[in-house]
Every structure is written in C-alpha cells, then in structure tokens.
Amino acid sequence: MALQAAQIADLVTTTQKELGRLKWTDIYPDLQDHIAFRKIMDAHKVSFSSGYEIQFNVMVGNSGAAKNVGLYGQDTTNVGDVMKLASLPWRHSETSYAFEKREISMNREPARIVELIKTRRHDAMTSLAEKIEDNFWGKPTDSSDDTTPYGIDYWIVPNASEGFNGGAPAGFTDVAGLSPTTYANWRNWSAQYADVSKTDLIRKMRKACTFTKFVSPVAHPNYNTGDKYGLYTNYNVLGTIEELLEAQNDSLGNDVASMDGRALFRGMPIQWAPKLESAATDPIYGVNWGVFKPVFLKGEYMRESAPKESALSHNTMEVFVDLTYNFECRNRRANWRIDTA
User: Fold this and answer.
1) How far apart are CA 192 and CA 70, in angstroms?
2) Can you tell me the distance from the alpha carbon of 333 to that of 178, in angstroms, rounded to the nearest whole number?
3) For the residues 117-131, what does the mean pLDDT come to?
4) What is d(CA 167, CA 156) in angstroms, rounded to the nearest whole number?
5) Helix, strand counts (H, E) of the chain
6) What are the residue boundaries of the structural domains of the chain, listed by start?
7) Element (H, E) at 35
8) Are 99 and 72 in contact (CB under 8 A)?
9) At a CB cut-off of 8 Å and minimum separation 6, what does 98 contact?
10) R_g of the chain, CA atoms, integer Å
C-alpha cells in the first residue's frame, strides 16, 4: 500500500494544508440566478423617489371632443375628467450581520485564512438577494398584507381568455388604487396555451407582443423609457423551445445541444428564471422594463449602517442593511403573460 503525505505524522504536525486563502466557494444559494436582485443592484436602471407613498398619473379615457361638422355650425366644447391617480405604498426589507470584537483579534494575519467579516456580510447579502427574488416573483397575500412588496404576480395577472383580461390579482379588488373592472385598459394581456409549439404558445406570444405595443398618436410626456422587453420562463418551456429551434435547423453539425442558451424571440433572449421552476402553470412573462421597474426611497437604497454595539452585549457589533422600495408598473397593458391551464 502506497504511503501518502497525510500518513506521515511529523509532516502533518509541522506543515499546514494549502489553505485556499482569502477565497471561498459558496454552495448555499438554491437558485442558479437572482434576476430581480441583479436589476435592483444596477443603480442606473432603477428609479429614486420621495414622499410617503409612490404616486403616478393615469389617463383613463378621453372627453370625445372631436367631431365632424358642416359650414356655419354652432361651436360646442366638451371638457371631461379623464385623469386618475395610481399609488402604492413603500415596503421595507433588511438584512444584518454581527461579530464579536475578539473575533477580529483572532481573525488576523498570519492565522487568517479568509476575512471573517466578508463571509458574514456575504451571508447577509445572499439572504437579502433571496428575499428580494421571492418578493419580485410573488405578490402580497391579499389587501391586508402590509409588508410584502407588489411583485410581478400583483401587476401581471393570469387569465385563461386571450386578450387584455389580466384584472385584479387574487385577494384584491384594484391594482394600485385603480379598478380593472371600471377601467378595462388597466389590465395586462393574458392567454392560455396547451403545448409549446409554433401553432400554440409561439403564435400566442407573437400576438401578445403585437397587441401590447402601443404608440400614442400625440406626443406627450410619459413614463415609458422605451420598450425593453424581458422574456422569462421555466425550464419546461425553455427546454422545449430550444428543441423547436433544433428541429427547424437543417445544419446543426455534431453538437447535440447546439441551441441551448440561444433561444430568441423577435431578437430578444428567452431567459430561464429559476424561481419559476415551482410555477405549476409553466408561465412565460413578457415584462416591459420601460414601464416596470423597482423604485427606491431616495437615501434608503441599500443603506448600510456602521457597526454599532449590541444593546445586549457590549462586545458584539451589529451591522444592518436597509432598503425602502417597491416594484411599480406604470402601464399594465404593455405587459403580458401566458400560462397553461
């Protein structure tokens, strides 16, 4: 039997292992990607605001002032109330970590393998990323839930009927204070598919993209920063779409998975959202990031406190990271989703 280094007692006693200093492998997250957290951390693509709530203006109709007239007709004017206010509350999330002062003395060179504080902060921020991902892909339980942010399932609601039928989410009678029953244009596009094929799901996606692209006949100041769609689904859908791509290509060569990671729809990548693996209806979302975005209270964007002594232990230092935010959609009918039954 061959002798190995670990079996030589003096060598083990007098020599350290190769310690992989200052780096570590993080196998904790269950999700392969955190789409919402990446959006939030891109500070150039989020909005900042003030006030005790978030409010925006919505034109829900027109006065019908235009008409056809004859010569010498009598003038009449028509003024109507066409503006409404939508609003949503701020929501708050936090994470934290702590350390004991004497741990810092122990965790210093030359004995240090990794920086203890960095591992504690990494742990806290990973927890926050997972919480934000839960918040983004979900919704409050109902109108009495006063802590959960208004995630994607609050704004983009499923419906079996094809068309602008995504009304109020379960547990609510309105969306941001406006009733989709009263104002039919305050609804998202919805549809239902039976199989992932060009004649079913793909055809409905094409229609959804066409029907949700609105161009105002009159230029005006508006909230849309440009039609920037993101397409998100789970692997059941994405994997089948990639197989569709292979089936329509006659020159794939010897790559048995040549279309993996290359699925496009109208030039837009179809992205796998790991959080949707648990979605029973295999949805695919068309999110228009021109009107759908996270908004933060100015000064409360990932605000990290300085270490301070715990009220219960003078040697324990605590650090908190706070954010006050919500997800807002300023034009629901520019977004769509398609689900199975």
Assistant:
1) 49
2) 13
3) 87
4) 8
5) 7, 15
6) 35-60+82-216+291-339
7) helix 35-41
8) no
9) 120, 310, 316, 317, 318, 319
10) 27
The CA distance from 191 to 221, in Å, is 31
279 Cβ neighbours under 8 A, 6+ residues apart: 234
Which amino acid is residue 327, in one-letter code? F
Strand pairing category for 336-339 and 284-288:
antiparallel
User: What angle in degrees, to the nearest 10, is found between the helix axes of 201-211 and 235-247?
Assistant: 100
Nearest to 178 by CA among 187, 170, 191: 187
pLDDT value at 92 more than 70 = yes
Q: Which of 199-203, 259-263, 271-275, 278-282 has the lowest mean pLDDT?
A: 259-263
Sign of torsion, CA 37 42 43 48?
negative
- Say yes or no: domain 35-60+82-216+291-339 is CATH 2.20.28: no
Calpha distance 198→244 (Å, rounded): 8
Q: Measured between alpha carbons, how far apart are the two ends of the chain, in Å? A: 63
Instruction: At 196, list the tokens.
Output: 């992932």
How does DSSP classify residue 196? Answer: S
Taking residue 116's Cβ as centre, other Cβ atoms within 10 Å add up to 16
Find, among 270, 154, 259, the residue nearest to 209 by Cα.
Answer: 270
Residue entry with tokens 């598919």 = 193
pTM: 0.84
> Residue holding tokens 């229609």?
207
- Residue 256 identity: V
pLDDT tens figures, 291-329: 998 889 988 988 999 889 999 999 888 999 999 999 999
**CA 290, 80, 334 angle in degrees (round to 5)?**
20
Q: Is residue 38 over pLDDT 80?
A: no
User: Residues of the chain with pLDDT > 70: what percent?
Assistant: 83
What are 310's two structure tokens? 């715990």
Q: What is the pLDDT of residues 198-241, one digit of tens each?
A: 999 999 999 999 999 987 777 766 767 777 889 999 999 999 99
Structure tokens at 155: 């704004």
